[in-house]
User: Fold this.
Amino acid sequence: MAAHTKLWYLQHFRLLEALTDVQKRSVEKMTRMLEVKRGQRIYLPGDPSDQIFLLKTGVVKISTGGAEQDTILALLYPGDIFGELAMLDESPRDHVAEVVEDTVLCALNRDMLLQMIQQSPALGYQITKLMGLRLRRLRTRVEELLFKSAHARIAHTLLDLAADYGVKDDDGVLIPIRLNQGDLGNLVGLARETVNIVLQDLKQRGLVETSRQNIRLKSPELLRTVV
Amino acid sequence: MAAHTKLWYLQHFRLLEALTDVQKRSVEKMTRMLEVKRGQRIYLPGDPSDQIFLLKTGVVKISTGGAEQDTILALLYPGDIFGELAMLDESPRDHVAEVVEDTVLCALNRDMLLQMIQQSPALGYQITKLMGLRLRRLRTRVEELLFKSAHARIAHTLLDLAADYGVKDDDGVLIPIRLNQGDLGNLVGLARETVNIVLQDLKQRGLVETSRQNIRLKSPELLRTVV
DNA sequence: GCGTGCCTGTGATCGGGCTCACAGATTCAC
DNA sequence: GTGAATCTGTGAGCCCGATCACAGGCACGC
Assistant:
């Protein structure tokens, strides 16, 4: 991939806004651009944690990687960063990062990033913010998971997905994610069959529409009231 | 409280290791030292997020604050930081911070901290690390909560608590926390009665001993194998 | 374009954990 | 020291969601 393209990507990354153009150029020299196809793994448990990734296009799933009951910890979309725990220490990965939709991404060396932060506190603050937002999100997720019913878990999770990645139009919000019922179950801790029942019910009540390609929330307001 | 005492506390705080003595002194000028007693609230949902707290002594509980089914998000001990999401933005608190055991703590102004970070990237990195560790911990907690049985949830949660705050002796590990069965339930998403049944079983099997003051893990190794 | 997987839809059955209800045991406040 | 409040222990019954089993439907690869 042409170097100027890579630079373009870097310039448009939220995380790197804080950098000067000169700094961006230096980042550019030290990153690798990758294209990774659906189904491939970016890292596995036990791999060294020496890189951080910037996701340009596509979708990545972070999960525990078990065949069945593969707990999904996060779904990542263009503009997201992942593997950021490499910032902390040398301990190896303990999750699987798998490509769900063909991706283009940028690999950033750990040491390099630490060095950049020394020079640019603003960049450090961006990363702190990023982690903080993740933390906040994960907390609300814990709240969702404890004590809430299957209906509530799914309704609220759909709303979360919509808030992040949904496209609003005159018929509600479209979530352009190919997410099968099994995966949705792994995201909220329910069996695939249960997810089916719940979705069926939500469809009947006119709250959502589903296809294999995407999910449409017809009435986010009502969905929010589901218990 | 005497100023030199406050400085002493600051000097021994892990978070602030990165600062020079001069910087510590300037922090000292800008912090307030508080003593808060059991049962008091430090902040409530809706309160402004303009402070970060350093916990010197005692125990603080971060939770959703509902009367029943008060989801516990974190228990904090001496040396811990909390309220750190104030770093992100101005959005108000959305949890309750309640004192579980009498505390001494230090309140640090948000703007002040941001300013310090500008001057000391190392401090920023400390905070990033802190958030990263919280993030990692919360992820493993999500994994625990989804799909795992009541026995496993409790056994693993006890091990987590022991890892952080336990005191090892020749009869296992002592967790010096006054944690009743109801709260333990709120920590893992189980009814109080279920917690009782599980603890009863673990006691019978010689894995733990409980009193109202604390919990002793007689055999962490066996506890780890509980499914 | 056709077959072979993968995904969705649905029923029967089972069981873990919740709810409700109450009795005893501790601890705490005064 | 005594009463009130809180916490623990335990049983009966129920219900949500898991598991198992299988029938169609799509979609993608060759």
